[in-house]
Amino acid sequence: xTATTAFSLLPRSLRARLFLILLxxxxxxxxxxxxxxxxxxxxxxxAVMFRTLENDVATSLAVLDRTPAAERPxxxxxxxxxxxxxxxxxxxxxxxxKSPHGREIAARLENAAGTxxxxxxxxIPGEGGRLQAHLNLSDGSxxxxxxxxxxIMPVADWLPYVLVAQMLLLLGCTWFAVRExxxxxxxxxxxxxxxxxxxxxxxxxxxxxSEVAHAARAFNAMxxxxxxxxxxxxxxxxxxxxxxxxxxxxxRLRADMADDTPEKDKLVxxxxxxxxxxxxxxxxxxxxxxSGEKTARIDLASFIDSIAYDYQDTGKAVSVTGPIDGTASTxxxxxxxxxxxxxxNALKFAGAAEIEVEHRDGGAIAITVLDRGPGIPDDMLAAAxxxxxxxxxxxxxxxxxxxxxxxxxxxLAATLGGSVRLYNRSGGGLAAEVVIP
Length: 437
What we know:
alpha+beta; Beta-Lactamase; Heat Shock Protein 90; five-stranded mixed sheet
């Protein structure tokens, strides 16, 4: 399996990958340490067992050899141990011992018997590694030493519980370490998703390890630079638009003093279009950072009705649908400018507009301007919110406008803490929605 294939089997999230890698590494390291410790203890216990077996057998042989034959049966049980027993007689028939463990035990028994008691080691078939050592005492009496294999180091009953507790502790520590390591990355990603240079928000916390603090400082500095660049761009637009007003005014005066000709009418029309573009540029620049308007509480029904009446007084088909109730704490002039831009677009491309108000969960208020015009292609709805954007088909230069109305509405909505959304209506037409808290 290649490294690429191995990584493709891991979970997609960095948190899960780090958790599995750290847990696997720590578990393997813990297992190796436990195995090495267990092997070392097994070797030590094995050496102690063989040394004890050799000493005990040597002592038992010396005692039996010096004891009268009639008294020896009484000593057999006393001299026997848990891993071997003594029996008078030739014992059972066996086969030659060939196992490494048996040969090691045989060497220890031969050391214990010494040259005085030559012995023969045999294995008992089908007895799970049991051995018999046959020898004759000094008086020629046969003696059999039967070796019963036992575990070198029995496992304590409480050891599995300790292992489970250690693994749970290892699991908890790994989870905590991964969470602490990933948390700053999650906060950085959330701050990047919420990045909006046009709104004032608290800077990302620069506390924590040096690497995290460095990344947070870099992000905060980047956000400040972006906000500065945007502010500088808007200031340049405002300055250019403002400075253009004076030469445009002079050109208008000169055009008005000229003789009435078709060319004069075209020139005046072009100057009016330029002037409207300049005025919208100034309005866009001002809306980027708000107008300094203070928040006030308004009655929604009176506010919406007043906007509709203003248009109706000039003969425009603007109506309010559905009941409207409640109040809102907002900036009235900014909200009026947003709705006016929506209504102007609806009147321009559909000839009529409807206003709806909806109360949503969390206290949000959605105000929607609806029309039955040609709408906007779905793949161009997002682009329609960009400054100076025009659609070449239905919403073109012939209908007027500079392509700044929706961009101004979007920026004003941001200063209100709200948002703007465009979507096409079923059955045709466009809906322009502003949601305010």
